[in-house]
């Protein structure tokens, strides 16, 4: 079902302009954009410091980064989300909290190389990315080879991808891809909430929903 456009979307987006670094896609062909278009961000100018930068891809309503940014004031955060309706909620929540260390990119993850300098990201969070189990949809999975090639380039040495999902199939697929791309798995559980990692975990909006259905959550961290 298609989501209805939010009321007063444009004036509300405008009101969040200070938080929004980029909006839209540089051109219709995302592959061409990723290869050729460059408008790289200068994070020291954006945040006014040289603290490490972590990024969530597919931030949804932003609950995860809202909590993590408050826990880690010495880290900068980028929230990437393709859907304008959704990122607006995240930005309005963030504006209400007044945290200085979070900025938003309303772009498809395919175009991350257009804006993010190579080697500039210390951690990438993939929280409950859509599993897209159908065979023809593999390219759109956020852990498919084309995205892992992008993440590997954006991550600093020793940086990592932190993934959570309720889909066992998507999880096994992702682990295979990390290995194929030379990432080392430094943490892995197929039942996060009954593991030692549960204590530090921040429950996202989708995670809360899956937990209420009694579903186990898989988690892995893959290091470059
Ligand atoms: C299932 S939701 C999870 C939201 C949130 N991370 C959570 O755990 O509650 C996945 C989100 O990823 C976004 N998304 C999917 N593909 C994307 C892409 N290629 N680039 C950026 N965002 C994407 C969707 O719009 C959606 O908001």
The ligands found in this model are: S-adenosylmethionine
Helix share of residues? 25-40%
The number of distinct β-strands equals 8
Beta-strand fraction estimate: 15-25%
Number of helices: 9
List unreliable stretches of 5+ residues. none
Distance between the termini: 37 Å
Summarize the topology.
Elements: H1 9-15, E1 20-23, H2 30-36, H3 43-47, E2 53-57, H4 63-71, E3 76-80, H5 84-97, E4 102-106, H6 112-115, E5 121-127, H7 145-154, E6 155-165, H8 168-180, E7 184-189, H9 205-212, E8 218-223
Parallel strand pairs: 1-4, 2-3, 2-5, 3-4, 5-6
Antiparallel strand pairs: 6-8, 7-8
The protein binds S-adenosylmethionine.
S-adenosylmethionine (SAM) binds next to α9.
Sum this structure up briefly:
With 224 residues, the chain is of the alpha/beta class. The chain has nine helices and eight strands. It has helices at residues 9-15, 30-36, 43-47, 63-71, 84-97, 112-115, 145-154, 168-180, 205-212; strands at residues 20-23, 53-57, 76-80, 102-106, 121-127, 155-165, 184-189, 218-223.
């Amino acid at each position: 079902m298609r989501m209805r456009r939010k009321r007063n979307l444009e004036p509300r987006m405008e009101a969040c302009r200070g938080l929004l670094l980029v909006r839209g896609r540089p051109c219709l062909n995302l592959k061409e954009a990723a290869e050729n278009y460059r408008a790289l961000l200068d994070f020291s100018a954006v945040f006014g410091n040289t603290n490490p930068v972590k990024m969530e891809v597919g931030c949804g309503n932003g609950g995860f980064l809202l909590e993590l940014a408050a826990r880690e004031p010495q880290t900068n955060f980028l929230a990437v989300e393709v859907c304008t309706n959704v990122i607006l909620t995240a930005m309005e929540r963030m504006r209400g909290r007044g945290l200085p260390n979070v900025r938003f990119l309303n772009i498809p993850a395919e175009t991350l190389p257009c804006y993010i300098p190579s080697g500039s990201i210390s951690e990438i969070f993939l929280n409950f990315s859509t599993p897209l189990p159908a065979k023809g949809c593999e390219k759109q999975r956020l852990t498919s080879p084309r995205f892992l090639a992008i993440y590997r380039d954006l991550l600093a040495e020793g940086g990592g991808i932190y993934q959570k999902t309720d889909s066992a199939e998507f999880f096994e697929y992702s682990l295979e891809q990390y290995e194929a791309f030379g990432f080392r798995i430094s943490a892995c559980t197929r039942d996060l909430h009954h593991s030692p990692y549960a204590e530090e975990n921040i429950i996202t909006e989708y995670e809360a929903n899956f937990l209420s259905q009694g579903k186990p959550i898989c988690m892995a961290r893959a290091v470059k």
